[in-house]
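batch job 7 of whatever, protein = F-box domain-containing protein
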Amino acid sequence: MSRPSLYLAPSVNTTTVTTTTTTTTTYAPIPLPPLPAPSSPKDPKEYPLLHAHLPRSLRRFSLEFPGGARATFEDGTQGNIFDEVEEVPAGQGWRMLKRGYDANREETIGLIEAVERYGRKRSHSISSEMMLDNIEAPLLASNLTGSPPPRKKPRGSTLNTNNAAPPSPLPSPNGSPPTTAVWPSAPPSTVSSPQPSTVIVSNTAPFQPDISIATLMTLPNILSHFNNLPQPLQSHILLTLMRHSPLPVLRNIHSVLTPTLARDFLTLLPPELTSIILSYLPYSALARASRVSKSWRAIIDSDPILWQELLKTTRIWFGGDTERAFADAVNARRTYKGLPAPGCLPLPHPFKILFKSRHLTRTRWMNNNNPRRISFAAHGGAVVTCLLFSHNRIISASDDHSIHVYCPFTGNLLQSLDGHEGGVWALAATKNTLVSGSTDRTVRIWNLTNGKCTHIFGGHTSTVRCLAIVKPEWLDIDIEGGGIKRERWPKRPMVVTGSRDHSLRVWKLPRQGDPEYMSAGANDSEGDVGDEDADENPYHVRLLTGHEQAVRALAARGRTIVSGSYDCTVRVWDIITGACTWTLTGHTQKVYSVVLDPVRNQCCSGSMDGTVRIWNLKTGQAIHVLHGHTSLVGLLGLSPTHLVSAAADSTLRVWDPSSGQLRHILAAHTGAITCFQHDEFKVLSGSDGTLKMWDIRDGTVVRDLLTGITGVWQVVFDGRWCVAASNRLDMTYLDVWDFGGDDDDQDWVGELNSMPDEEDVDSDGTMEDDDEEAPAVEPGLNDMDVLIDEDREDTSNVRTPWNQSSSAGPSSRLVDRALTDAGLFNVDNRSNRTGGLSNNGDEPPTRSNPSRSSNNGRVR
C-alpha cells in the first residue's frame, strides 16, 4: 500500500502593472509522515470493558443498505458466533425466522465495510464538507482521483514571482512561509512555472500531523455519518468504543447515563403487576420502600391487594368478616371527617392499619420481656368490679360506689366520678360518654370531658347487673318471599341493661348536648328510683320481660340482644320490636355468661352446669354442647377464630367456634379463674395470685406478668397497653404495662377497642361524633351477687370458707364468693357438693354490708 500524499493546489499570483501577467506554479505532492498508531489497551484494570462480551443481538444482525441491498453484519472479534447454540422455535414442516432473515444466506460483512457502504451515498457531500479552508472543491477532488491539476498558459511575459509566497493549503490563519523557506518537493512539471532560483532544502517536514487535530476536524462528519447508521450498528460502535475506554471515562459516562436512564418502574407498571411485585417483599422491606418517595408511599400504602395478601401470608387474616368491618369503619370515619384533604397524599388503606396493629400485637407482646411498667394504689382496699381501657383512659369501678379515671402514662387520677349509692357492677364507654350500672338500681350517664353525671335513669327495682351499648350497623334482613335487603339498625345508639329484677330495659344513649334527666329519688331527691315510671323518661324505649330470675349476662349487636339468666335459659330479643325471638333451653343450672357471634349467626352460653352451648340464632337449636369443665363456666370470650371459656375448675379452654372442637386446655392456675381477656394471639388470665400470658395458638404459657400477690380482680388490654387490678397487702393496685417499643409504635392502636367502629348515622342522615364501642369488661368470678330477701336474715357474716379456715384475707374471700355463686356453699356453712338450687329456687345468699345497702334495704 502506498503512503498517503498531500497534493498542493497551484498557487496563483496576479500582479497588475500596465498589463496583467499571470504566473502559475505547480508543485509536486509532498509525502506526509504516517499518523501515529493508536495505543492499544492492554490492562483490564484500567479498561474494565476490554474483554467484555457484546450482546448476541449486537454481534450478528441484518442490515439493509441504501438502494435495497441486504447483508448480515457479524463481529468476528469475539470468536465464532455460531459456537453458541440458539434455540429456534420450530415444528413439523416449519420454523420461525427472525425479521430480515434470508434463507439464501446473505452476504456477511464486518464493521469497516458496513460503515463504508452506508457512507457511499454521501461520498460527494462528505468530501465537500471535509475540504479545508482556501482549497477549491473541484481541484481537491481531481487531486484525490489522481488527475493532473488544471493549468493555464500565461499571457504576455513570464515573470519570476519568487518574492511572493503561494497561498497555504493548510488550515492555518497565517500565510505560507516566506520564499526563503521553500518546502522540498518533487521536480516541477515541465509546463509549470520555472523553479525558484533559491532553494533551501530542509530535512524535516514542515509539521507533524496530530491525531487529536485530525479527529476534531472530522468529528462533525463522524456524528453526521453516525446518525445515519441503523441502531444495531450504532450500538455496536458505541460498545466497541466503550471497551477501549479507561475507567475514568466510563465513570463519567456512568454519571451521565445513570440519572438519564433511571425509571420509576412502580409508577410505570400497571397496578396489578405492581401488587404482584410488592407482594414478594417482607413487611420490613415494604416499610423502607415506602420512604423512598411520595409516589412509592402512595402506591404501597393504598394497595388493598398487597396488604390483604400480606395479612394472609403472615397468618393474621381471620376470615375476612372482621377485616372488612374494620375497613368499612375506618372509611366511614374518613368520609365523615372529609379525609384526605385536597392536595394531600392518599391515606393508608385500612388493611395496612390493621396489619400494623396485628403485627405489632403479635411481635411486641411475645418478644418484649421487659415492657415499661407502673403500679399505683386505687380504691383503697375495695374490690375492682369493672375495668376499661378507652381512648388512653383507664376507667375502674369498685364496690366502694366510686368510678375512677386514671392516666396510663403517669398513673395520676384524672377524675373521680361519685354519685352512685351502691357498688358499681357494670360499665360501658364510647368516646366521651360512660354508662354505669349499680346496686342502687340506677343507670348513670357520665360526660368524661368534665366528669359530670348528666343523666340518671331509674326503673329497675334491683341491681343493674349488666349492660351494653349498641351502635348502629348495616344488617342483612330477610324479606318475606325470599331475598335480602340491607338496613341500618338501630337508628341511633342504644343502651341495654339487665337487672336482678328479671327484666331488661332499652334506653336511648344521650348525645352530647341533649337535655339532662334525673330520675325521681336520685341525688337525695324525694321518691324512690325503683318506683319511678320509666315510661315518663324520654330516653326509655322499652321493657323486656320474660325471664323468671335475675338477668346475669347480656350481649347485644345490631337488632339482636342475647340474655342469660339464673332461670337456666337464654333468650334472644329483637331490640327494635321488643319481641322475644327465641327461648333457648338446655342448661340445667344458672347461666352466667353469654357472647354473640353475628358473623356465624350464633350465640354461646356458659353455665353453672359446667357446659358451654353454641346456639343457632336462625333455628333456636343448640348445635354444639361443649363438655370438659368440671365446675361453673363463669366467663366466655369470643374472637374471630377462637372461643375461650374460663371456669372455677382453674382451667381455660380454647374451642373452635365453628365446629366446637377443643383446641387447647390452659391449665397452670391453682384456683378459680377470676378474669381473662384474649385476642387471636394471646390469652391473659388471672387467678389466685398470678396473672399469666398464654400463646393461644399452641396453648403454652409465655410468661407470668404478676406473681406473689393475693388475687387478681380484673385484667384488660388494648393495643400496646395492659392494665390489671390486683390485691396485695390488703390494698388494691393497678398495674399498667406498655409493650410499645419505640417512636414508630406511637400510632399503634388496638384493633378492637381503640379503632373506630362504623359511624353512627341517625334516621335523618346526620352523623354523630361518637367513637367505637368499648364493651364492658365482663366481671370475673370475684364479684358478689347480692340479693337479700326481705324475710331472710343476713347470715353472710358468719360464713367461713370451704376449708373451714378462720383466715378472712382477700384471697379466701375471692374464692369464697366465686364458689358461693357456684352453689358449693350454703348459709349453714355446710358444703353443698350437689351444686343445685334450693327447693324454693332462691339464690344462695352472699356477703352483704348493711352500710352500703339501698334505702329500702331490699337490694345492694
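notes: The chain has a mean pLDDT of 76.
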